[in-house]
Amino acid sequence: MHDDPQSPPPSERDPLPKIWDEKSTIGEMLRGRRGLIVGVANEQSIAFGCAAKLRGFGAEVALTYLNDKAKPYVEPLASQIGASMLLPLDVRDVDAIPRLFEQIKHEWAYLDFVIHSIAFAPKEDLQGRIMDSSREGFLLAMQVSCHSFIELARHAEPMIRPGGVLVTMSYYGADKVVENYNLMGPVKAALESSVRYLAHELGSSKVRVYAVSSGPLKTRASSGIDHFDELIRMAVERTPEHRLVDIAEVGRVVAFLVGGGASGMTGDVIYVDAGLHHMA
Asked: What pLDDT does residue 8 have?
């Protein structure tokens, strides 16, 4: 993604560190804060952009990987940024999230943030019409992409300190009809609605909840969307600066939300899409 000619040139953005060291840090805004980041699959993952930037601002992070097949891709990234923990998590397993939090509790007494960046729909359901989607495919997409965020919130609640933050990742197709986004449109709409309700329910505990809606990014999750290159072309044509965002830009916004600067906001969908959602 970073080498895409439509992305911002390196001189105009804050690049992700190639090799982690103390010189890669940005500041200490998040020093002393600890959080869980779910969804790192490879170096192009939005979750990795978030993890690298949160570490850059001084936070401690725990990362998850899907399974043994995914671990070799995630383990070097966890090492690169100095992650405190690397733990398995397949949210399709009903025992996986409780087991994850037991492991985290063993190492940490508290959490300050949880970043949820996972989505899935079976290819045959994602690439067809919504009205033709199977019951099983729809329920699986909703469970992995939406309900897992609710489950993470429920298990994080006893550990998260006042001022804590929950963030999930959405997309413009939750609000508007986007050609070929199909089944994920209503799933992301449910996710954004869940953010509002969770913000209400956790507000008395001083915990804030957000959805971050990025423009189209070439991630592993997006590879299943039919004619995804057309979404990329549309975004470049329609954004005010005629460009895509990158995962580092998303990560910086997430760092802002986790930090105290966003203390007056909750329940919001924050767009990081180079202005795409404003365009008719």
From this structure: 46
The span from the CA of 246 to the CA of 145, in Å, is 21
pLDDT tens readout for residues 70-98: 999 999 999 999 999 999 999 999 999 99
How many whole angstroms separate alpha carbon 102 and alpha carbon 216?
35
* Sheet-wide strand order for 111-116: 85-88, 60-65, 34-38, 111-116, 160-171, 208-214, 269-272
As a whole number, mean pLDDT of residues 120-138 equals 95
Q: Catalytic residue at 171?
A: yes
Which 8-state DSSP code applies to residue 122?
-
Average pLDDT of the residues in 183-191: 97
pLDDT at 2 (0 to 100): 35
Which of 65, 171, 172, 210 is flagged as catalytic? 171
pLDDT, residue 270, reads 97
**Predicted confidence (pLDDT) at residue 28 exceeds the cutoff of 50:** yes
Length of the chain: 280
Q: What are phi and psi of 111, to 5 degrees?
A: -130, 155
Closest C-alpha among 230, 110, 106, 91 to residue 168:
91
Beta-carbon contacts of residue 235 (< 8 Å; ≥ 6 apart): 215, 216, 244, 273, 274, 276
CB contact at 8 A, 104 and 62: yes
Q: What is the mean pLDDT of the chain?
A: 89
- 173-211: b (≥16 Cβ within 10 Å) or e: bbbeebeebbbbbbbbebbbebbeebbeebeeeebbbbb
The pLDDT score that the predictor gives to residue 1 is 35
Q: Which two tokens stand for residue 86?
A: 């690397």
Q: How far apart are CA 46 and CA 219, in angstroms?
A: 7
* Marked catalytic residue, from 65, 172, 181, 271: 181
Structure tokens at 33: 């804060």
